[in-house]
């Protein structure tokens, strides 16, 4: 029996429900593949802050620095005021420079876009999300866009290395260098330099506003999307609509030493505790985590069960046209393992 200790943050709203569903599926799959999971659980987020005054417990940092891997549910972030995003804080603290988001169609879902299969590599630590803001005076606020050669080069290297390893043939670099000639220009310079080391991969550049139109018209032209932080955040949400929304799409934040795998959807407090939440996004994020910790058999077993349940269409949650609750969906996945 192989044992993995994983730092777990269930999160806010529906987070505890989807986390419970996901961990139970992983444990059931692990029994079949000889893997045991030890969950080091910590409450973090808006609800924890209200109870304890601590947004992220210090013990969480100690745990993550020991396990180096975390599975994280959705956490709420106030809009326009209040505390900063937990996600942004963790990415900066642990230098989780690569945001990796696969967008792939699950069978059985109604959609205007069939057979979507693309990957987004988003730089995760700089750009406008560096958090360098100030009020110049009561009427003028300023945010600084930070693009570095180091940050741009390493996200480009991550995207090209992944494409080569997994047989992806094409990378689009998304930018706005026609206007932001220095910052986005530096990003493109770095991408072009890395691209020269991968001659077998077609390298293309698209301006971000045109990319939004192109994605809606013909998303199949894209294979791997490589971009900066803000554009990647926006484009990954847009792309999720092709496959059923954020409730289905996984996300990974990867650095050299640590990795956090998370559901990228919101905490949905309006349906929390009602057995309505869809755990698919967090479950697919956990599948990415299993590959990361070198447990491909368990990952493939869970993914096959997920595909089977969606293909059958009998036990799906309401957000994807079904009538099942969270618990029934979870039981269907476990039965399909």
UniProtKB/TrEMBL annotation:
Key word Transferase present: no
Domain Isopropylmalate dehydrogenase-like: 5-333
Keyword annotations of the record: Oxidoreductase
GO terms of molecular function: isocitrate dehydrogenase (NAD+) activity; magnesium ion binding; NAD binding
Protein name: Isocitrate dehydrogenase (NAD+)
Similarity annotation: Belongs to the isocitrate and isopropylmalate dehydrogenases family.
A GO BP annotation: tricarboxylic acid cycle
Listed Gene3D superfamilies: Isopropylmalate Dehydrogenase
Highest taxon in the source lineage: Bacteria
Entry keyword annotation includes Oxidoreductase: yes
InterPro entries given in the database record: IsoCit/isopropylmalate_DH_CS, IsoPropMal-DH-like_dom
Pfam family, one: Iso_dh
